[in-house]
Amino acid sequence: MSVRLLIITHGNIGQSLFDTAVSILGGSPLPTEIFSIALNCEPDSTLEQIRTTLSDTEQSDGVLVLTDLYGATPSNIACELANKNINVVAGLNLPMLIRVLNYPALSLSELTEKAISGGQDGVVPCHCGKKS
Question: Which domains does the chain have, with CATH numbers?
Answer without folding.
Answer: 4-121 (3.40.50.510)
